[in-house]
Design goal:
The complex is a heterodimer. Chain A is mainly β. In chain A, 0% of the residues lie in helices and 57% in strands. Chain A has no helices and eleven strands. In chain A, the strands form two sheets. In chain A, strands 2, 4, 5, 9, 10 and 11 form a six-stranded mixed sheet that branches. In chain A, strands 1-3-8-7-6 form a five-stranded antiparallel sheet, with no helix packed on it. In chain A, strand 6 (56-59) and strand 7 (62-67) form a beta hairpin. The relative contact order of chain A is 0.34. Chain B is mainly beta. Helix content of chain B is 0%, strand content 50%. Chain B has strands at residues 5-7, 10-13, 19-24, 31-37, 43-50, 53-57, 65-68, 75-79, 88-95, 104-105, 109-113. In chain B, strands 2, 4, 5, 6, 9, 10 and 11 form a seven-stranded mixed sheet that branches. A four-stranded antiparallel sheet of chain B has the order 1-3-8-7, with no helix packed on it. Chain B is globular, with a radius of gyration of 13 Å. The chains are: A mainly beta, B mainly beta. Chain A binds chain B through residues 31-32, 34, 36, 38, 41-46, 49, 89, 91, 93, 96-104, and chain B through 4, 31, 33, 35, 41-45, 48, 55-56, 58, 89, 91, 93, 95, 100-108, 110.
Chain lengths: 111, 114
Amino acid sequence: SQKIEQNSEALNIQEGKTATLTCNYTNYSPAYLQWYRQDPGRGPVFLLLIRENEKEKRKERLKVTFDTTLKQSLFHITASQPADSATYLCALSGSARQLTFGSGTQLTVLP
Amino acid sequence: EPEVTQTPSHQVTQMGQEVILHCVPISNHLYFYWYRQILGQKVEFLVSFYNNEISEKSEIFDDQFSVERPDGSNFTLKIRSTKLEDSAMYFCASSEFRGEETQYFGPGTRLLVL
């Protein structure tokens, strides 16, 4: 069955450092991989989308890589700030439009 | 910036009662979705809707669930006879139909079944 794993449930880093979050998947051939941010009690907020034929995507302090051979995506937040503290969700979609989400990584940026 | 809206923000109901959750997707979007998130668990897909019909649904979306687009702006999820295990956050999402898969989520409705 399809499985999506995000590297850890919680990640603490110091302000100003780069946060790196990992998303691994098995038994899946996604056409798209997306990263969302979710704050407590709120809906997921779209951050970045990367297609299967793309290796890397950037948006301001965010960077996503996608390795379909390793079946892995890395999500980086550079120059992290306390306001970046949230749960970050990896989501995949294939030919069907439905998103399959990972369980998320809770990031805490310490001042 | 356009956004998906959902009402009510909270809903408390008795087991066996019917509930209807309301969503207003982004106005130029053509694909609509419902997801749910049980407390402490993953966001799970329920159903997608395009051109006034269901395009995909998950195993969770059984006969107790239905969706409707009653007019040009609203998109509803009905649960006919609620169970305790239906307690969750329900998120509506929408996306454009131009090969772009980005889905924009609403703030959610927290449903509590007693």
